[in-house]
Amino acid sequence: MQFFVHLSNKQRHLMTEGLVRDHVEYLRKLKEKDVLPFCGPCKDGTAIMILSCGNLEEASLYVEEDPFSKAGYYETRSIVEVEEANAANNFHLDKVVDYLTTRTV
C-alpha cells in the first residue's frame, strides 16, 4: 500500500540545525527500509512524502516518529492511501467504466 502525506503549516521558529540533521537521518533510514520512495518540499512551503507500508496505522506511526513531527515543525499532517494509476492497471480505466455502467442514477 502507498500513502500520500501532506505536511503544512510550517513553524519556522522551531527549525534548528540539529532538528534538520535528525530529520534527514530519519528519512535515510526510511529510504534504506524501502518505506520512502519519494519525499520533498513543495514550492508553496509545504512538503510531501510517499510511504510504502502495510496500513494507515503504520503510515501514521512513520509520520509521527519523524523528528519534524515530534517537534511540531509541520503543524498539519494529513495522510491518505493512494492507488497508483499506471499502464499495468490501465490507469484504472476498467474500474471507472465498471462504476459508470453499474451505478444507479
TrEMBL record:
InterPro entries: Dimeric_a/b-barrel, YCII
Limits of the YCII-related domain: 1-82
Coiled coil: none
Name of one Pfam family that matches: YCII
Signal peptide: none
Family per similarity comment: Belongs to the YciI family.
Name of the featured protein: YCII-related domain-containing protein
Record organism: Paenibacillus taihuensis
